[in-house]
Recover the amino acids of this structure.
């Protein structure tokens, strides 16, 4: 298959929420307490919520910037590529990248809706969260039918309310919800408890995929305070192996046999050894650990329930036969610093070359369609969905990297974990 013939659907991109998000969606006290965009004296634009600023972290919106200016310092909307927050510009950026469909994780709310969890009045918090979800489905995803896979944010403080929201969103056509790879790190019960059962039951009932993005436990992988930040960036995807182990050994999949979770941005090259290891542990230790998978092995349970997702993983392609071929998905990660925009097709072909067309189609779009209840071809003819066809619509879209000023980490030498902690601390 040639790159121009690919049909690309990314199951991991991100949205920087626009200034008008809550307009017309709330009344009364909820409208008064909703996050509002304010311009500071220094010209920075920040969301203000409950008396605190919620800066747009720089690494969340680097698409279109020169790499020397990547960093953690907050960005104003004027410093971002418009496709980060404007749906019309986003579609242009998808077209120029040859990407048909996209699932977008939130920025402002945190991966699990932690922002609203901090409110003292949970009734108001739920109203804000539902307004956010309605905006995401109706405005962000609904403006261009067939181009977006909707993803909801859960009211993590109440598992029953989480289940109710999953069902409400499913009625709107949303069959994906974001959640934490390790809820215990957020001060909640772990995967090994029954605390989340109402939520998990609802997801199983309506066929909603639980998307567990790397970093959704709000825990940064820091090995040493003087380690370069490159160490953290390297380990972040592979760190999701901890989530995989938690899930496999927890009762979750045995209690909910039709539940599916996605390890978003987790990569796949590490999975074969993980599967080998969990089976070895089971065979050698089940007599005294009292694990019982019946007539299955842990590796089979993983491949039955877990959707794997990767951006760039040539090693994973070489060992893909160890994974469930119907559960492998491609990602772009726009507009984050790991994104392959605007050369996603060219970069994808480096690891897809030689892979049979049937498997390429599964990895690039068919698996996403099947697993996320997504049918772009109900709105867009297949012949208009290829890389070549989409790029033909975007010949006027400029992808030249832009400079807005001094590099974020210039004159600081090697960026270390301490630099990261200090920068985050200044933003709180």
């Amino acid at each position: 298959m040639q790159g121009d013939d690919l049909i690309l659907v990314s199951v991991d991109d991100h949205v920087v929420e626009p200034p008008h998000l809550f307009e017309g969606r709330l009344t009364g006290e909820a409208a008064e307490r909703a996050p509002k965009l304010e311009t500071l004296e220094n010209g920075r634009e920040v969301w203000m919520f409950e008396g605190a600023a919620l800066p747009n972290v720089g690494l969340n919106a680097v698409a279109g910037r020169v790499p020397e200016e990547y960093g953690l310092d907050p960005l104003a909307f004027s410093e971002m590529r418009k496709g980060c927050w404007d749906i019309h510009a986003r579609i242009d950026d998808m077209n120029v990248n040859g990407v048909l469909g996209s699932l977008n994780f939130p920025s402002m709310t945190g991966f699990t809706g932690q922002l609203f969890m901090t409110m003292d009045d949970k009734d108001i918090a739920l109203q804000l969260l539902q307004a956010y979800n309605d905006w995401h489905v109706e405005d962000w995803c609904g403006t261009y039918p067939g181009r977006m896979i909707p993803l909801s944010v859960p009211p993590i403080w109440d598992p029953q309310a989480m289940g109710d929201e999953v069902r409400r969103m499913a009625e709107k056509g949303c069959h994906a919800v974001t959640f934490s790879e390790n809820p215990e790190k957020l001060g909640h019960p772990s995967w090994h408890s029954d605390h989340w059962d109402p939520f998990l039951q609802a997801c199983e009932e309506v066929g909603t995929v639980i998307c567990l993005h790397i970093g959704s436990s709000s825990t940064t992988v820091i090995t040493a305070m003087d380690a370069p930040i490159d160490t953290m960036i390297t380990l972040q995807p592979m760190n999701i192996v901890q989530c995989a182990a938690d899930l496999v050994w927890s009762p979750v999949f045995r209690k909910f046999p039709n539940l599916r979770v996605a390890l978003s941005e987790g990569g796949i090259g590490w999975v074969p050894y993980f599967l080998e290891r969990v089976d070895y542990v089971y065979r050698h230790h089940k007599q005294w650990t009292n694990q019982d998978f019946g007539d299955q092995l842990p590796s089979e349970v993983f491949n039955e329930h877990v959707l794997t997702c990767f951006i760039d993983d040539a090693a994973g392609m070489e060992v893909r036969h160890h994974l469930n071929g119907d559960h492998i998905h491609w990602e772009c990660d726009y507009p984050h610093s790991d994104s392959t925009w605007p050369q996603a097709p060219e970069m994808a072909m480096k690891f897809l070359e030689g892979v049979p067309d049937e498997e390429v189609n599964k990895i690039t779009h068919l698996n996403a369609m099947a697993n996320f209840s997504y049918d772009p071809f109900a709105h867009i003819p297949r012949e208009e969905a290829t890389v070549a066809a989409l790029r033909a619509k975007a010949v006027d879209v400029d992808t030249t990297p832009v400079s807005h000023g001094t590099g974020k980490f210039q004159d600081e030498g090697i960026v270390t974990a301490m630099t990261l902690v200090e920068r985050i601390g200044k933003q709180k």
User: Anything to note?
Assistant: The domain at 3-33+83-420 is CATH 3.20.20.140 (TIM Barrel).
